[in-house]
Design a protein that fits this description.
Blueprint lengths: L4 E8 L6 H4 L12 H9 L21 E5 L12 H9 L3 E4 L4 H10 L3 E4 L13 E5 L4 E4 L5 E3 L6 H7 L2 H7 L24
Parallel strand pairs: 1-2, 2-3, 3-4
Antiparallel strand pairs: 1-5, 5-6, 6-7
Length: about 200
């Protein structure tokens, strides 16, 4: 399997998942650039979703679900950058939704925490929580490994190399747009294009 694929368990959500559900406001005092607080932020990812099993099991810092499948308007609400960071800190690698709030999409790209993939197919009817899936970023497809169905995704286009690099600043460093020396207090970006398997 190449590094251009993401494989893992699927967590299924509906429409209009807002940033209060992704990371409630009381956790916004956690500073993502501090490693311990980054991990803690991940442990609260999607804790505002009350009508589904916990995305991160109680007492744990990581989720068993590498892929989120959702409906329309994912990430709506506030412009908090903590939302994609919390999911990424929990171990989430990609969200596949019918549409996004544009600021959430841009925050995914800028932070390099998640691949925000779009689909014209209502995938919430094609998956159940716990299904295994494989996303092929080069082919722009997602396959439900339980049913064997492969469905098309919209390409990420120019956003993909930025996310591959680990976010906007790391991309700018790699391409020579800014100096390559990072401030010592800034957490190094971790590219998310690694393969995730359970």
């Amino acid at each position: 399997m190449s590094a251009n694929k993401i494989r893992g368990k699927v967590y299924v959500l509906g429409d209009n998942i807002d940033t209060d559900q992704i990371i409630p406001a009381q956790y916004l005092n956690l500073v993502p650039t501090i490693p311990d607080e980054y991990e803690k932020l991940g442990s609260y990812a999607l804790c505002g979703v009350l009508d589904a099993p916990a995305y991160v099991p109680p007492g744990q810092a990581k989720t068993p679900y590498a892929i989120i499948v959702a409906g329309r308007n994912f990430g709506c609400g506030s412009s908090r950058e903590h939302a994609p960071i919390a999911i990424g800190a929990a171990g989430g690698r990609a969200v596949v939704a019918e549409s996004y709030a544009r600021i959430f999409f841009r925050n995914c790209v800028a932070t390099g925490e998640l691949y925000p993939l779009e689909t014209a197919t209502r995938l919430v009817d094609e998956f159940v929580i716990g299904d295994e899936a494989e996303i092929d970023l080069d082919a722009s497809t997602i396959t439900n490994l339980r049913s064997g169905a492969t469905m098309p995704l919209g390409p990420l286009g120019d956003a993909r190399p930025v996310i591959d690099a680990g976010g906007l600043f790391e991309y700018a460093r790699r391409t020579g747009m800014i100096a390559s020396t990072a401030h010592p207090d800034v957490r190094e970006a971790v590219p998310v294009n690694r393969v995730v398997e359970d």
